[in-house]
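Thread: zinc ion complex, take 2
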Amino acid sequence: MKVLCTERRCGWHGLEAEVLQAANPFDVDDQINGCPKCHSVDSIVVACDEPDCWQQSTCGTPTPSGYRNTCGKHVPKASDALAQLEGRTA
Ligand SMILES: [Zn+2]
Ligand SMILES: [Zn+2]
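Output below.
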């Protein structure tokens, strides 16, 4: 999964596997994550699924090929999803 740092001065983006993780000192069952570049805590958010797009994901859309997290610009069109569900191709 693609993720990015929301700290304005940082601008880091990468893969979920690169994010720093640690046990939450206030809740042992919880984990906190940190940006590998600026080290701020809990500033990591999911990025758009579209290749080459690093906007923050604001929409989650179920599609026949799986759940997609996208920015507002790359939301899968409902009509496309429906066409795939019915086995039609555009
Ligand atoms: Zn950062
Ligand atoms: Zn996007």
